[in-house]
Design a protein that fits this description.
135 residues; alpha+beta; 2 domains; three-stranded antiparallel beta sheet
Length: 135
Amino acid sequence: MERTIKNIKLWYADHARQEAPQGLLGPMAMAKSLAEMVQEDCPSTPLAPLPLVQGEDSMARLACGSEKVRLYQEEQIVPEDGKVVCPPERLSFVGLQFGVFSMGKASRESRLIGWSRYSACAKVGCGINGGEASL
């Protein structure tokens, strides 16, 4: 998380210098942090494809140096997933139609961890800053 905060600060610094950062702040900062951790703590571990260990709990895990990382995946949800995975209020805005799931072959309902945005979000940026970087 410390690496991620550092990379968030760098993202804003690039934006302040008029250098357009690529991608979305959160995912890019986390991905860069994971890549830095792997490069520093276990440089012989390739990130593409990421060497994952599948456990009985069907959650992808990566052990690297003293770090242990559990990865989840974001998936689009649809009404056919049922009301637990896709409650009706999640259909009002496309940004609400994504869930976070553990990896594996179990049902989507049993793999659901949560949703990518809180349910009151009604537009890009969720009304906080319009989805644009700001200081």
